[in-house]
Structures are given as C-alpha cells and as structure tokens.
Amino acid sequence: MNSRERVLKALAYQKSDRVPVVPFIITFAAKYGGTKFIEYATNSKVLAECQIAVAKRFRIDATYVDSDPIIEIEAMGAKVRYPEDESPSAIEPAVRSRKDLVLLKQPDPEKDGRLPIWINAIEILKEKVGNEFAVFANVNGPFQAAAQLLGMLETAKCMRRSPEILLELLDLTTQTIINFMKAEIRAGADAIILGDPMSSSSVISPREFEQFSAPYIQKVVKQAEVPIILHICGDTTKIIDKMMDTGARYLELDWCVDMNQIRKKHGNTIGLIGNVNPTLFLTGTPEVVEDSCRKAVESAGLTGAFILGTGCELPKDTPYANLDTMVAAAEKFGRYV
Length: 337
Hints:
Layout: H1 3-11, H2 27-32, H3 37-42, H4 44-58, E1 62-65, H5 71-76, E2 80-81, E3 89-90, H6 98-101, H7 115-129, E4 134-140, H8 142-150, H9 152-160, H10 164-187, E5 191-195, H11 206-212, H12 214-222, E6 228-231, H13 240-245, E7 250-252, H14 259-266, E8 271-276, H15 278-283, H16 286-300, E9 306-310, H17 320-333
Parallel strand pairs: 1-4, 4-5, 5-6, 6-7, 7-8, 8-9
Antiparallel strand pairs: 2-3
Helix pairs in contact: 4-7, 7-10, 8-9, 8-10, 10-12, 14-16, 16-17
C-alpha cells in the first residue's frame, strides 16, 4: 500500500496497513529545499518541489500546499509585508469602518493575488506525485480572515459591542474561502485543511466561537467535495463538540488536547490528526519523539480514523533524525495488519 492509498483509507475511517504520518510541514520544507521562504511563498514550482523532496526523503504520506495565513486577505486587498525568510504578514488592518467593506474585492482564485500559486502547486503535485502521495491543501478559516482584516483589537470590540461589521465581513470572507477551496479541489486536492488559529480557545471564548466562527466554518464544509480537516491551535477541549458540529471529517489537534478522552466519548465518529508536541521535534531526542508518537497512536490510533501528526507546524530547524523517528514509530506502534 502506498502513501496516498494509506491516507485515503484513513480519511474514509478505514484501517490500512499502518497509521499514516502527515506532520504539518511548511517552513521546514522550504529550508530542506534550500530556498528562502519568500521564494517558497511566491513560486508554485518551488513550493511543489520542496514538498516532493520532503515527502520522498522522510517517507511521510502527504504533500501539503500552504505557506502563510494571509493569502486570502491579500487577494481581497490587504497590504502585505514580505520578509526574505519568514512568513508574509499583513501590514495593517484593511477594514476600519463599514465603508471599507466596499473596497474589498471578491477575488478570482485563478487570477488574483497569490491564490493561483497554490492552485498551480496543487496541479504540479498531482501531476508529479499524485498517484504516490496524497495532496493536502490549506484554506484559512472565515473568522481568521475577518479578524486579520479588522485587526484583533477591533475584532474583540465588534464581538462585544457592535457585531454588525464583523458579521458582514464574515459573509465576505466565507465566500472568498469557499471559492478558493473549490478551485483547490478542482486542481486535485485530496483533502482540505481549514486552519483557524484565531478561533483558538486561548484567543476567543467558546461562546464567541459558537457565534462568530463555527457557523461560517460549517458553510465552508458544506460546499466541500473532499474531506475537510479542521485545525485550531491550542487547548480546544472546551469546543471539541462544536468543532465536530461543523461537519469536518477530521480534527487536527494540538499537543495539549487529550485525544484519548475524545475517542472514549465519540469513538470513530470523528477522525483525529495529532498530536505530538512540535517543540519536541526541535528540542527532544529521537527516543523522546518515539515515546510521544507511541502515546499518540495508543491514545487515538489503534481503531483507525487516525493520522499521526504534529499538533501545529513542525519547526523549520527540526533535526532530520527526529522526523525520521516519527515514521519509524508509526511503523513500529501503528501496524493494523
């Protein structure tokens, strides 16, 4: 069974030969490929080649098209800063009042900003390794995009005092993300990871998540023709049920979430990815990484519907031996046959 077959089985809640391994790899791929991150984030060929190199060298089971969390808002009109070897970031809030909403564009994923770079990277991956490795692609959550356009301070004010602008903006970001996701699926993505770090329980309350984030994630999920993997950073224990209610097929969980408790409560009605602490890959020994991978597999992976991964992004300076250990641990502890 090859990597793509292994991942597709897991996404269908079925067992394959072993637990698949799909760590969250972005900056590590650029560094491994010997390129500055600005090239990775602005050149589809570079992004795809770096992902292929990492997948083949480290025997992970999926390639991953992602570079930064501001790609949608840039295409909508936000001003962006491009450091040479760090992730792009928004320079300033693009929306300060309701009148600014009309200045935002509904971007064409095939033409506007860097959206076509990701689309083309998916197409390259599908053509070159699509029969061997699964192809995952990212979109950012509607709340995340809206909060970045407003700025987090203004977003907090809107949630508490005057939600009208935020709700109107959420309608715009949701449609942008749906359009982008559909283009990624047409390009050949096997699954979509919807990342929404700003919906973390360390940023907004469970009540605010239920009101301003979850309904819009659900709208995106309903338009997907492939599995959606919902990624929210931090301790999401208090919103797990609400995350499940979005209809996402998988939850990608950070290291501080107890996956065993989710399995006990929900069984295999939800797929889980996780949740080895990414810091351990940078600071730990192979023995420490192996033990953490074993615990993750034993907590949530023995019955299937599981992919071994990092709770958040793999540090770009991760020693190669530690990433090698992750796949070896899946082969050692995660065999189904």
